[in-house]
Amino acid sequence: MAGVSSNDKISPFSFRNGSLYCENIEIDKLFDDSIPNDRQWVPAGPFAVYTFDDPITPAYVYSAAGIKQNVKSYVDGLRHANLNAKIGYAIKANPNIWLVEKMKESGVGMIIAVSGYEVLLALKAGFTGEDILLNGNGKQPWEIKMAIDLGVLLNVDSVFDAQQIARVHQDIESSNEVKVLLRIRPVPAKDEESKLKTHEYVNTAENSKFGFEFSELDQVLAALNSREKIKVVGVHCHFGSCLTNPKVYEWLGTTVTDITTELDKRGIAVKIFNVGGGVGIDYHNIPKGLPKQVEEEIKTVGNFTERFKDIEPVSSISDFLLALAKTIPKDCELILEPGRSLIGNAGILVCKNLGTKVSYGKKFLVVDGSMNEVIRPCLYGSHHQVFPTKINVTEKWTTYDVVGPVCESADFLAKNVPMQTSSTYMAVMDCGAYCSSMASRYNMRPQVTEILVDDGLWRKIRRRDTFEECYLKYYDDVKRYDN
Ligand SMILES: Cc1ncc(COP(=O)(O)O)c(C=O)c1O
Protein backbone atom coordinates (compact mmCIF):
# COMPACT_ATOMS: atom_id res chain seq x y z
CA MET A 1 0.00 0.00 0.00
CA ALA A 2 1.33 3.42 -0.89
CA GLY A 3 2.21 5.73 2.00
CA VAL A 4 0.58 9.09 2.68
CA SER A 5 3.79 11.02 2.39
CA SER A 6 7.30 10.15 1.47
CA ASN A 7 10.58 11.50 2.79
CA ASP A 8 12.20 10.89 -0.57
CA LYS A 9 9.79 13.21 -2.39
CA ILE A 10 10.64 16.23 -0.27
CA SER A 11 13.56 18.39 -1.24
CA PRO A 12 14.15 21.66 0.55
CA PHE A 13 16.81 22.35 -2.06
CA SER A 14 15.89 23.00 -5.69
CA PHE A 15 17.12 24.75 -8.80
CA ARG A 16 15.45 27.87 -10.19
CA ASN A 17 16.67 29.41 -13.42
CA GLY A 18 19.86 27.39 -13.08
CA SER A 19 20.66 28.50 -9.51
CA LEU A 20 20.48 26.33 -6.41
CA TYR A 21 18.11 27.61 -3.75
CA CYS A 22 17.58 26.66 -0.14
CA GLU A 23 13.88 27.36 0.26
CA ASN A 24 13.62 30.95 -1.10
CA ILE A 25 17.25 31.89 -0.67
CA GLU A 26 19.68 31.66 -3.55
CA ILE A 27 22.87 29.97 -2.40
CA ASP A 28 25.27 32.11 -4.47
CA LYS A 29 23.64 35.34 -3.32
CA LEU A 30 23.76 34.16 0.29
CA PHE A 31 27.48 33.45 0.10
CA ASP A 32 28.48 36.37 -2.16
CA ASP A 33 26.39 39.16 -0.67
CA SER A 34 25.00 38.25 2.73
CA ILE A 35 27.22 36.26 5.06
CA PRO A 36 29.89 38.58 6.45
CA ASN A 37 33.51 37.51 6.70
CA ASP A 38 34.61 37.33 10.33
CA ARG A 39 37.89 39.06 10.97
CA GLN A 40 40.30 36.89 12.89
CA TRP A 41 42.94 38.18 15.18
CA VAL A 42 45.80 36.01 16.24
CA PRO A 43 47.14 37.62 19.44
CA ALA A 44 50.71 38.10 20.55
CA GLY A 45 52.41 35.61 22.79
CA PRO A 46 54.31 32.76 21.29
CA PHE A 47 52.89 33.85 17.91
CA ALA A 48 53.11 37.09 15.97
CA VAL A 49 50.03 39.28 15.71
CA TYR A 50 48.34 38.60 12.42
CA THR A 51 44.88 39.38 11.10
CA PHE A 52 43.02 37.85 8.21
CA ASP A 53 39.53 37.48 6.77
CA ASP A 54 38.18 34.12 7.75
CA PRO A 55 36.70 32.35 4.71
CA ILE A 56 32.95 31.67 4.79
CA THR A 57 33.13 28.32 3.03
CA PRO A 58 32.92 25.44 3.48
CA ALA A 59 29.64 25.84 5.37
CA TYR A 60 26.63 23.69 6.07
CA VAL A 61 23.26 25.15 5.07
CA TYR A 62 20.11 23.68 6.62
CA SER A 63 16.47 24.17 5.77
CA ALA A 64 13.94 24.48 8.61
CA ALA A 65 11.15 23.61 6.18
CA GLY A 66 12.98 20.38 5.38
CA ILE A 67 13.09 19.41 9.06
CA LYS A 68 9.42 20.27 9.55
CA GLN A 69 8.43 18.22 6.50
CA ASN A 70 10.41 15.23 7.72
CA VAL A 71 8.86 15.32 11.20
CA LYS A 72 5.44 15.72 9.56
CA SER A 73 6.07 12.59 7.49
CA TYR A 74 6.44 10.68 10.78
CA VAL A 75 3.43 12.35 12.42
CA ASP A 76 1.19 11.72 9.38
CA GLY A 77 2.57 8.21 8.88
CA LEU A 78 1.84 7.27 12.50
CA ARG A 79 -1.71 8.55 12.20
CA HIS A 80 -2.17 6.66 8.95
CA ALA A 81 -0.84 3.44 10.47
CA ASN A 82 -2.93 4.00 13.60
CA LEU A 83 0.14 3.78 15.80
CA ASN A 84 0.76 5.48 19.09
CA ALA A 85 4.45 6.33 19.20
CA LYS A 86 6.91 8.82 20.58
CA ILE A 87 9.24 10.20 17.94
CA GLY A 88 12.69 10.27 19.51
CA TYR A 89 15.39 12.12 17.61
CA ALA A 90 18.75 10.29 17.53
CA ILE A 91 20.67 13.45 18.36
CA LYS A 92 23.99 11.96 17.18
CA ALA A 93 22.80 12.58 13.62
CA ASN A 94 23.22 16.30 14.19
CA PRO A 95 23.39 17.89 17.63
CA ASN A 96 23.23 21.55 16.57
CA ILE A 97 20.94 22.95 19.27
CA TRP A 98 19.03 25.21 16.87
CA LEU A 99 18.14 22.19 14.76
CA VAL A 100 17.22 20.19 17.85
CA GLU A 101 14.90 23.01 18.95
CA LYS A 102 13.36 23.03 15.46
CA MET A 103 12.72 19.28 15.84
CA LYS A 104 10.99 19.88 19.19
CA GLU A 105 8.87 22.67 17.74
CA SER A 106 7.86 20.38 14.86
CA GLY A 107 6.68 17.47 17.01
CA VAL A 108 9.70 15.43 18.15
CA GLY A 109 8.94 14.28 21.70
CA MET A 110 12.13 12.56 22.84
CA ILE A 111 15.88 12.69 22.47
CA ILE A 112 17.92 9.54 21.99
CA ALA A 113 21.37 10.11 23.43
CA VAL A 114 24.54 8.04 23.49
CA SER A 115 26.67 10.19 25.80
CA GLY A 116 26.39 12.39 28.87
CA TYR A 117 27.01 15.52 26.82
CA GLU A 118 24.21 14.59 24.42
CA VAL A 119 21.92 14.27 27.48
CA LEU A 120 22.97 17.73 28.67
CA LEU A 121 22.42 19.21 25.23
CA ALA A 122 18.91 17.74 25.15
CA LEU A 123 18.20 19.48 28.48
CA LYS A 124 19.53 22.73 27.04
CA ALA A 125 17.17 22.32 24.09
CA GLY A 126 14.21 22.13 26.47
CA PHE A 127 13.68 18.38 26.90
CA THR A 128 13.25 17.00 30.42
CA GLY A 129 14.99 13.93 31.82
CA GLU A 130 11.91 11.80 31.20
CA ASP A 131 12.00 12.79 27.51
CA ILE A 132 15.49 11.35 27.12
CA LEU A 133 16.76 7.84 26.51
CA LEU A 134 20.41 6.96 27.08
CA ASN A 135 21.67 4.28 24.74
CA GLY A 136 25.14 2.91 24.41
CA ASN A 137 27.29 -0.17 24.73
CA GLY A 138 29.92 1.59 26.84
CA LYS A 139 28.12 3.85 29.28
CA GLN A 140 30.42 5.27 31.91
CA PRO A 141 29.57 5.55 35.61
CA TRP A 142 29.25 9.37 35.47
CA GLU A 143 26.79 9.04 32.57
CA ILE A 144 24.74 6.40 34.38
CA LYS A 145 24.67 8.56 37.52
CA MET A 146 23.47 11.53 35.46
CA ALA A 147 20.72 9.40 33.90
CA ILE A 148 19.59 8.10 37.31
CA ASP A 149 19.56 11.61 38.82
CA LEU A 150 17.60 13.08 35.90
CA GLY A 151 15.07 10.26 35.44
CA VAL A 152 16.43 9.37 31.99
CA LEU A 153 15.25 6.06 30.50
CA LEU A 154 18.21 3.66 30.19
CA ASN A 155 18.86 1.03 27.57
CA VAL A 156 20.62 -2.04 28.94
CA ASP A 157 23.15 -3.25 26.39
CA SER A 158 24.92 -6.21 28.03
CA VAL A 159 25.45 -8.17 31.22
CA PHE A 160 28.24 -5.84 32.31
CA ASP A 161 26.12 -2.78 31.49
CA ALA A 162 23.32 -4.17 33.68
CA GLN A 163 25.79 -4.83 36.49
CA GLN A 164 27.24 -1.35 36.17
CA ILE A 165 23.82 0.34 36.24
CA ALA A 166 22.94 -1.59 39.42
CA ARG A 167 26.34 -0.80 40.97
CA VAL A 168 26.06 2.94 40.30
CA HIS A 169 22.50 2.99 41.69
CA GLN A 170 23.83 1.36 44.84
CA ASP A 171 27.00 3.49 45.10
CA ILE A 172 25.12 6.77 44.92
CA GLU A 173 22.50 5.37 47.31
CA SER A 174 19.80 6.57 44.97
CA SER A 175 16.18 6.13 45.90
CA ASN A 176 15.12 7.11 42.35
CA GLU A 177 13.22 4.59 40.31
CA VAL A 178 15.18 3.72 37.16
CA LYS A 179 13.25 2.62 34.10
CA VAL A 180 15.18 0.43 31.70
CA LEU A 181 14.69 -1.17 28.29
CA LEU A 182 16.50 -4.35 27.30
CA ARG A 183 18.43 -4.00 24.05
CA ILE A 184 18.00 -7.34 22.37
CA ARG A 185 19.92 -8.15 19.23
CA PRO A 186 17.25 -9.05 16.66
CA VAL A 187 16.96 -12.69 15.59
CA PRO A 188 18.45 -12.86 12.06
CA ALA A 189 16.13 -13.01 9.06
CA LYS A 190 15.99 -16.30 7.20
CA ASP A 191 14.55 -15.13 3.90
CA GLU A 192 16.68 -13.14 1.48
CA GLU A 193 14.17 -10.34 0.99
CA SER A 194 14.10 -9.17 4.59
CA LYS A 195 17.86 -9.39 5.08
CA LEU A 196 19.61 -6.13 5.84
CA LYS A 197 21.15 -4.69 2.73
CA THR A 198 23.23 -2.15 4.51
CA HIS A 199 26.91 -1.48 5.09
CA GLU A 200 28.43 -3.69 7.80
CA TYR A 201 29.47 -0.57 9.75
CA VAL A 202 25.83 0.49 10.14
CA ASN A 203 24.38 -2.99 10.66
CA THR A 204 23.58 -3.43 14.34
CA ALA A 205 21.88 -6.80 14.11
CA GLU A 206 24.00 -9.86 13.34
CA ASN A 207 27.57 -9.91 14.70
CA SER A 208 27.24 -6.45 16.11
CA LYS A 209 28.75 -5.05 19.30
CA PHE A 210 25.33 -3.71 20.34
CA GLY A 211 22.74 -5.43 22.51
CA PHE A 212 22.67 -8.92 23.97
CA GLU A 213 21.29 -12.29 22.95
CA PHE A 214 18.39 -14.19 24.46
CA SER A 215 20.80 -16.62 26.08
CA GLU A 216 22.05 -13.80 28.34
CA LEU A 217 18.61 -12.66 29.45
CA ASP A 218 18.71 -14.29 32.89
CA GLN A 219 22.14 -12.89 33.72
CA VAL A 220 20.98 -9.41 32.72
CA LEU A 221 17.81 -9.71 34.79
CA ALA A 222 19.72 -11.04 37.81
CA ALA A 223 21.97 -7.99 37.77
CA LEU A 224 19.07 -5.57 37.42
CA ASN A 225 16.96 -7.36 40.05
CA SER A 226 19.68 -6.78 42.61
CA ARG A 227 18.23 -3.26 42.95
CA GLU A 228 14.56 -3.10 43.75
CA LYS A 229 14.11 0.34 42.18
CA ILE A 230 15.33 -0.75 38.76
CA LYS A 231 12.32 -1.62 36.64
CA VAL A 232 12.38 -3.33 33.26
CA VAL A 233 9.63 -1.58 31.27
CA GLY A 234 10.31 -2.73 27.75
CA VAL A 235 12.52 -3.82 24.93
CA HIS A 236 14.74 -2.11 22.39
CA CYS A 237 15.79 -3.43 18.97
CA HIS A 238 17.67 -1.53 16.30
CA PHE A 239 18.71 -3.13 13.04
CA GLY A 240 21.03 -0.56 11.62
CA SER A 241 21.01 2.50 9.45
CA CYS A 242 20.19 3.27 5.81
CA LEU A 243 17.35 0.74 5.71
CA THR A 244 15.46 0.72 2.44
CA ASN A 245 12.93 -2.10 2.77
CA PRO A 246 10.19 -2.18 5.46
CA LYS A 247 10.30 -5.99 5.19
CA VAL A 248 12.98 -5.91 7.92
CA TYR A 249 10.18 -5.31 10.41
CA GLU A 250 8.83 -8.76 9.65
CA TRP A 251 12.15 -9.98 10.91
CA LEU A 252 11.49 -7.96 14.06
CA GLY A 253 8.17 -9.80 14.41
CA THR A 254 9.94 -13.02 15.43
CA THR A 255 12.02 -11.20 18.00
CA VAL A 256 8.94 -9.43 19.39
CA THR A 257 7.07 -12.68 19.90
CA ASP A 258 10.05 -14.48 21.39
CA ILE A 259 11.03 -11.74 23.80
CA THR A 260 7.52 -11.02 25.05
CA THR A 261 7.00 -14.72 25.70
CA GLU A 262 10.30 -15.05 27.56
CA LEU A 263 9.73 -11.95 29.68
CA ASP A 264 6.15 -12.97 30.37
CA LYS A 265 7.40 -16.27 31.78
CA ARG A 266 9.55 -14.24 34.18
CA GLY A 267 6.63 -12.02 35.23
CA ILE A 268 7.74 -8.96 33.23
CA ALA A 269 5.22 -7.17 31.03
CA VAL A 270 6.63 -5.41 27.97
CA LYS A 271 4.98 -1.98 28.09
CA ILE A 272 7.34 -0.15 25.74
CA PHE A 273 8.69 -1.33 22.42
CA ASN A 274 11.54 0.76 21.07
CA VAL A 275 12.20 -0.21 17.46
CA GLY A 276 15.24 2.02 16.94
CA GLY A 277 15.81 4.20 13.91
CA GLY A 278 17.39 3.44 10.61
CA VAL A 279 14.96 4.55 7.88
CA GLY A 280 17.20 5.48 4.96
CA ILE A 281 17.13 8.48 2.67
CA ASP A 282 17.68 8.79 -1.05
CA TYR A 283 21.31 9.86 -1.50
CA HIS A 284 20.96 9.60 -5.30
CA ASN A 285 18.28 12.19 -5.67
CA ILE A 286 18.64 14.93 -8.32
CA PRO A 287 17.15 18.22 -7.04
CA LYS A 288 14.02 19.45 -8.76
CA GLY A 289 14.03 22.38 -11.15
CA LEU A 290 16.87 21.44 -13.51
CA PRO A 291 16.03 21.82 -17.20
CA LYS A 292 15.09 18.40 -18.62
CA GLN A 293 18.05 18.30 -21.01
CA VAL A 294 20.48 19.09 -18.17
CA GLU A 295 19.04 16.27 -16.09
CA GLU A 296 19.38 13.91 -19.03
CA GLU A 297 22.98 15.01 -19.67
CA ILE A 298 23.88 14.48 -16.00
CA LYS A 299 22.47 10.96 -16.14
CA THR A 300 24.34 10.12 -19.34
CA VAL A 301 27.70 11.66 -18.47
CA GLY A 302 27.82 10.19 -15.01
CA ASN A 303 26.43 6.91 -16.26
CA PHE A 304 24.08 7.59 -13.40
CA THR A 305 21.24 5.27 -14.28
CA GLU A 306 23.56 2.35 -14.99
CA ARG A 307 25.82 2.96 -11.99
CA PHE A 308 23.03 3.04 -9.47
CA LYS A 309 20.63 0.58 -11.05
CA ASP A 310 21.14 -1.96 -8.26
CA ILE A 311 20.52 0.49 -5.46
CA GLU A 312 17.22 -0.38 -3.82
CA PRO A 313 14.90 2.65 -3.72
CA VAL A 314 14.09 3.83 -0.19
CA SER A 315 10.54 3.12 0.90
CA SER A 316 8.55 5.94 2.41
CA ILE A 317 8.47 6.59 6.15
CA SER A 318 4.78 5.79 5.99
CA ASP A 319 5.42 2.36 4.51
CA PHE A 320 7.92 1.57 7.28
CA LEU A 321 5.31 2.57 9.85
CA LEU A 322 2.60 0.48 8.18
CA ALA A 323 4.92 -2.53 8.35
CA LEU A 324 5.54 -1.84 12.03
CA ALA A 325 1.81 -1.66 12.73
CA LYS A 326 1.56 -5.27 11.56
CA THR A 327 4.35 -6.36 13.88
CA ILE A 328 4.02 -4.55 17.19
CA PRO A 329 1.42 -5.68 19.76
CA LYS A 330 -1.34 -3.08 19.94
CA ASP A 331 -1.11 -2.58 23.70
CA CYS A 332 2.57 -1.57 23.58
CA GLU A 333 3.77 2.00 23.70
CA LEU A 334 6.13 2.55 20.79
CA ILE A 335 9.35 4.57 20.63
CA LEU A 336 10.99 5.45 17.31
CA GLU A 337 14.57 6.66 17.11
CA PRO A 338 15.09 8.20 13.66
CA GLY A 339 18.09 10.39 12.97
CA ARG A 340 19.01 10.48 9.30
CA SER A 341 15.43 10.54 7.99
CA LEU A 342 14.66 13.65 10.10
CA ILE A 343 17.61 15.80 9.08
CA GLY A 344 19.70 14.12 6.32
CA ASN A 345 18.06 15.70 3.28
CA ALA A 346 17.60 19.05 5.06
CA GLY A 347 21.27 20.04 4.88
CA ILE A 348 23.99 20.58 2.29
CA LEU A 349 27.67 21.49 2.45
CA VAL A 350 28.50 24.51 0.31
CA CYS A 351 32.12 24.45 -0.86
CA LYS A 352 34.21 26.90 -2.85
CA ASN A 353 35.51 25.67 -6.16
CA LEU A 354 39.31 25.96 -5.90
CA GLY A 355 40.30 24.59 -9.31
CA THR A 356 40.79 21.51 -11.44
CA LYS A 357 43.70 19.21 -12.21
CA VAL A 358 44.36 16.05 -14.17
CA SER A 359 46.39 13.09 -12.99
CA TYR A 360 47.09 10.25 -15.47
CA GLY A 361 43.92 11.19 -17.35
CA LYS A 362 41.75 11.33 -14.21
CA LYS A 363 40.06 14.69 -13.67
CA PHE A 364 39.87 16.20 -10.20
CA LEU A 365 37.83 19.14 -9.04
CA VAL A 366 39.37 20.51 -5.85
CA VAL A 367 37.02 22.26 -3.40
CA ASP A 368 37.56 23.68 0.07
CA GLY A 369 35.25 21.13 1.73
CA SER A 370 36.76 17.80 2.69
CA MET A 371 36.48 14.48 4.48
CA ASN A 372 36.63 16.55 7.68
CA GLU A 373 33.14 17.87 6.97
CA VAL A 374 31.71 14.86 5.05
CA ILE A 375 33.38 11.68 6.24
CA ARG A 376 30.70 9.28 4.95
CA PRO A 377 32.23 8.66 1.49
CA CYS A 378 35.59 7.57 2.88
CA LEU A 379 34.16 5.83 5.96
CA TYR A 380 31.43 3.78 4.31
CA GLY A 381 32.01 4.30 0.59
CA SER A 382 28.77 6.30 0.60
CA HIS A 383 27.58 8.31 -2.35
CA HIS A 384 26.64 11.99 -2.08
CA GLN A 385 25.50 13.98 -5.07
CA VAL A 386 27.55 17.09 -5.80
CA PHE A 387 26.14 19.88 -7.95
CA PRO A 388 27.42 23.25 -9.09
CA THR A 389 25.26 25.89 -7.38
CA LYS A 390 25.03 27.71 -10.74
CA ILE A 391 24.36 25.72 -13.88
CA ASN A 392 25.99 27.00 -17.05
CA VAL A 393 23.85 25.99 -20.03
CA THR A 394 26.74 26.44 -22.45
CA GLU A 395 29.21 24.27 -20.52
CA LYS A 396 29.55 20.53 -21.17
CA TRP A 397 29.26 18.14 -18.22
CA THR A 398 32.33 15.95 -17.67
CA THR A 399 33.13 13.23 -15.15
CA TYR A 400 35.21 14.36 -12.17
CA ASP A 401 36.28 13.18 -8.75
CA VAL A 402 35.43 15.94 -6.29
CA VAL A 403 38.17 16.10 -3.67
CA GLY A 404 39.17 18.30 -0.75
CA PRO A 405 42.45 19.87 0.39
CA VAL A 406 43.10 17.41 3.23
CA CYS A 407 46.34 15.44 3.15
CA GLU A 408 44.82 11.97 2.65
CA SER A 409 44.08 10.12 -0.57
CA ALA A 410 40.82 9.08 1.11
CA ASP A 411 39.79 12.73 1.06
CA PHE A 412 37.09 12.66 -1.57
CA LEU A 413 33.51 13.89 -1.55
CA ALA A 414 32.35 12.04 -4.66
CA LYS A 415 33.89 9.87 -7.34
CA ASN A 416 33.11 9.88 -11.05
CA VAL A 417 30.31 12.39 -10.85
CA PRO A 418 29.11 14.59 -13.72
CA MET A 419 30.38 18.09 -13.17
CA GLN A 420 30.62 21.58 -14.62
CA THR A 421 33.61 23.49 -13.34
CA SER A 422 32.69 27.15 -13.93
CA SER A 423 30.51 27.56 -10.84
CA THR A 424 32.02 29.46 -7.89
CA TYR A 425 30.39 27.12 -5.39
CA MET A 426 29.63 23.39 -5.29
CA ALA A 427 26.94 21.84 -3.12
CA VAL A 428 27.41 18.42 -1.54
CA MET A 429 23.85 17.22 -1.09
CA ASP A 430 22.17 15.40 1.82
CA CYS A 431 24.70 16.44 4.46
CA GLY A 432 22.24 17.09 7.28
CA ALA A 433 23.00 13.85 9.13
CA TYR A 434 26.30 12.32 10.24
CA CYS A 435 28.39 15.05 8.62
CA SER A 436 28.76 17.98 11.00
CA SER A 437 28.38 15.61 13.97
CA MET A 438 31.24 13.45 12.70
CA ALA A 439 33.46 16.35 11.63
CA SER A 440 37.08 16.56 12.71
CA ARG A 441 39.79 19.20 12.87
CA TYR A 442 42.35 17.15 10.96
CA ASN A 443 45.12 19.23 9.34
CA MET A 444 44.32 22.01 11.84
CA ARG A 445 41.23 22.82 9.83
CA PRO A 446 38.56 24.55 11.92
CA GLN A 447 35.09 23.12 12.31
CA VAL A 448 32.97 25.15 9.98
CA THR A 449 30.09 27.62 9.91
CA GLU A 450 26.50 26.39 9.94
CA ILE A 451 23.57 28.38 8.55
CA LEU A 452 19.86 27.80 9.09
CA VAL A 453 17.37 29.06 6.51
CA ASP A 454 13.95 29.50 8.06
CA ASP A 455 10.93 31.15 6.53
CA GLY A 456 12.85 33.42 4.14
CA LEU A 457 15.46 34.39 6.75
CA TRP A 458 18.86 32.94 7.51
CA ARG A 459 21.04 32.93 10.58
CA LYS A 460 24.42 31.59 11.57
CA ILE A 461 23.77 28.75 13.99
CA ARG A 462 27.40 27.81 14.46
CA ARG A 463 30.47 29.95 14.22
CA ARG A 464 33.55 28.59 12.53
CA ASP A 465 36.29 27.75 15.07
CA THR A 466 38.91 30.42 15.42
CA PHE A 467 42.61 29.67 15.38
CA GLU A 468 42.73 30.51 19.08
CA GLU A 469 40.08 27.91 19.84
CA CYS A 470 42.13 25.35 17.99
CA TYR A 471 45.47 26.06 19.65
CA LEU A 472 44.69 27.42 23.13
CA LYS A 473 43.74 23.99 24.41
CA TYR A 474 47.39 23.04 24.10
CA TYR A 475 48.12 25.67 26.74
CA ASP A 476 45.00 26.16 28.89
CA ASP A 477 45.37 23.31 31.31
CA VAL A 478 48.97 22.35 31.01
CA LYS A 479 50.64 21.65 34.32
CA ARG A 480 53.91 20.03 35.05
CA TYR A 481 53.73 17.19 37.47
CA ASP A 482 56.87 16.25 39.37
CA ASN A 483 57.19 12.65 40.52
C1 LIG B 1 20.30 2.60 18.64
C2 LIG B 1 20.19 3.56 17.52
N1 LIG B 1 19.06 4.26 17.40
C3 LIG B 1 18.88 5.15 16.38
C4 LIG B 1 19.86 5.35 15.44
C5 LIG B 1 19.61 6.33 14.34
O1 LIG B 1 19.68 5.76 13.11
P1 LIG B 1 19.28 6.57 11.80
O2 LIG B 1 19.99 7.87 11.87
O3 LIG B 1 19.77 5.74 10.70
O4 LIG B 1 17.80 6.74 11.81
C6 LIG B 1 21.04 4.61 15.51
C7 LIG B 1 22.09 4.79 14.50
O5 LIG B 1 22.94 4.01 14.23
C8 LIG B 1 21.22 3.69 16.59
O6 LIG B 1 22.32 2.96 16.71
Mind describing the biggest β-sheet?
A: 9 strands, mixed
* Total count of domains: 2
- Overall outline: globular
CATH superfamily of the largest domain: Alanine racemase
Task: Please state the second-level CATH architecture of the largest domain.
Answer: Alpha-Beta Barrel
Unreliable segments (pLDDT under 50, ≥5 consecutive)?
1-10
- Number of beta-strand segments: 22
| CATH topology term of the largest domain | TIM Barrel
Strand content: 15-25%
The unique ligands bound to this protein are: pyridoxal-5'-phosphate
Approximately how much helix is present in the residues? 25-40%
Q: Total number of helical segments? A: 15
Query: Which secondary-structure class do the elements indicate?
Result: alpha/beta
- Our Rg estimate from Cα atoms comes to 24 Å
CATH class category of the largest domain: Alpha Beta
Distance between the termini: 71 Å
Family: Belongs to the Orn/Lys/Arg decarboxylase class-II family.
Domain Orn/DAP/Arg decarboxylase 2 N-terminal: 79-342
Organism: Orchesella dallaii
InterPro entries: Ala_racemase/Decarboxylase_C, DAP_deCOOHase_LysA, De-COase2_C, De-COase2_CS, De-COase2_N, Orn/DAP/Arg_de-COase, PLP-binding_barrel
